[in-house]
Design a protein that fits this description.
homodimer; 205 residues; mainly alpha; Arc Repressor Mutant, subunit A; Tetracycline Repressor, domain 2; 11 helices; transcription regulation (chains A, B)
Chain lengths: 205, 205
């Protein structure tokens, strides 16, 4: 048991160190040696958990969606809006999420993109599909295609916000994103009661 | 005169070599030495035109909008749609444009982002402002804010397309982008006669 707990702690320390090193240096320039030093683990311990930098990067990306559990309320479209505002706060404040996004963007230009967007698309597709069943979407909208579009547009919006303000203005840019796309996404009945600012973010403010 | 022509040719050769080297290796890993070798110019000739890799990168970005001259027709919103489809073809086929975009995205994560989106935002703002004057936009839309949103969303869509298909599917993703945002952008009268596929692209096909 103690051994297992230690393994979990080591794994987490390596992931956080990787996030910090990759977040600072970028994916290409980050080295396993610096990650080992930063995590304060042995080389053997790191390679026990992650066979390569590629495997480590995939783990950082795979776990970036973990802290986000979308709420389920009467309006699944409002749940989606709230969820994307939660992610915006995470992108602003959480090194693991920032590193995952940086890896995602940078490896886009390599021969083997890690295609990390899929986990996000799956989450949004589920919410859009539920919203469609409840009559919250326009009849022509296909939830999976709309989710793919939404995630790609969101990726651009957060990149832009990163360049413009180190993501300080991301919450208001996410609000603007929803304001622009809701009229082409939501049924007129749903549109009237949706809040593009997000519910939970307002409550927390 | 001959001297001046040679200088123009040298400058162009350096820019194209820089685009190819940066497009292959990324901005950080690209070296002036490799760009000099690829361009087939002397070190002195290169530094006569560009004092640093940073200056060279800024020139690649500054000139990426040059080949695109938006047409001016009765519908400025349709002009904007057509323009973004022309850029999609350029992103798919033109190494200079591809390199400019890669630099733009990669330097987003450095301390001094080159904020290369501004030239695109200016072009789109002009077209949206004209469209607004013609009554093609919904009354609540501010052309500059809408252009900033559009360019950031487009950035994400082309990144996604790059990861998914090396940008082969970018034209259809640009069409999907317009389909999603036009209902929240265009006045009902304009919406009915706009073609999100773009006019010129269809004619060329």
């Amino acid at each position: 048991m103690v051994k297992q707990e230690r393994a979990v702690r080591t794994r987490r320390a390596v992931l956080e160190a990787a996030a910090q090193v990759i977040g600072t240096r970028g994916y290409e320039a980050a080295t396993m040696a610096e990650i080992i030093q930063r995590a304060g683990v042995t080389k053997g311990a790191l390679y026990f958990h992650f066979a390569s930098k590629d495997a480590l990067a995939r783990a950082v990306i795979a776990e970036q969606t973990d802290p986000f559990i979308p709420q389920v309320t009467d309006s699944r479209l409002q749940d989606a809006i709230d969820f994307t505002h939660q992610v915006a706060i995470g992108l602003r404040d959480d090194p693991l999420l920032q590193a995952g996004t940086r890896i995602a963007v940078e490896t886009t230009f390599t021969d083997e993109p890690l295609v990390p967007y899929q986990a996000w698309i799956d989450i949004v597709t589920t919410m859009f599909a539920d919203a469609k069943e409840k009559g919250e979407l326009l009849p022509a909208i296909a939830p999976d295609r709309a989710a793919e579009f939404f995630v790609s547009a969101y990726m651009g919006v957060q990149l832009f916000s990163h360049a413009a303000s180190n993501r300080l203005d991301l919450p208001e840019r996410v609000t603007a994103l929803w304001k622009h796309i809701l009229p082409g996404l939501a049924s007129p009945g749903a549109l009237s009661h949706l809040d593009p600012h997000g519910r939970s973010v307002r409550t927390a403010a």
